[in-house]
Amino acid sequence: MRREDPHRRLAEAVGGLLAEQGASNEECIALLELLPSKWERFSDVVLLPSSAFREEWGEYTSDGLWRAVAGAIGADRVGRVGEISGEMRESSAEMLLGDDDWVMRRESGVEYGYNLTRCMFSAGNINERRRMGEAARAGEVVVDLYSGIGYYTLPMLVHSQVEHVHCCEWNPNAVRALGSNLESNGVAERCTIHVGDNRITGANLIGMADRVVLGLLPTSEDGYEVAMAALGPSGGTLHVHGVAAADDHASWAEGVRRSLQEIEPSCSLEAGRPIRVKSYAPHWDHMVLDVAVSRR
Fold this sequence. Notes:
This protein is an alpha/beta fold.
């Protein structure tokens, strides 16, 4: 049996509600043309794009509208994406239907729980999260300098045999979610959380890492010195995230390599091919560069 198009269900549900509330035929047509063409659906939540149901909807935005949206898409709660802002990369998403903002995503066998209105989660990073679970090697000690709720830490702990991961995070909401996620995934005993600015807490991690993840956007450059210092005496691997012009990934990668070399001129660096994670903004891409550091 062919399933009905959810976009059609949404248009029918919202159109019926508008008619009940006395909207004219012209208003209905104009507003229905503004309905979102895409959204995220996970668990019992539908997460609408930031542009959905804004000022043009005026008096028609109400619990009734959000219930119509939820029913059409098959969700219990409705949220709307906001911008990621501030040094702590906090979410400004909002709940439109439902008071509880704690959500749970299950992805590639890993559970990620977090407060939707306080912490960020990028569904577009799925391939990189999966790759981190495959890149880590048995017995390694890993430092995750910008761990958040465990985006890259959790796949490594769940899917590889790393010995231990040291997580650095200064957002208290992310720290609470990370602690909960380590417990729910059964990996808490193999992870230590270092709360605070990693430029300070990194002093406790000098020389102990085989691998360091620098997963901060738009740039993780402030963590380069901390990362190099965290690597063991013989070196190790860095996973450096950043933003590059969509038509010139190579220049960004060369800039990363050059900055790392300036920190430690005597070491040998071997950079892999820059990997595109996803689009970051028009004409800009979220990138990651794997850099092997060898010390003579």
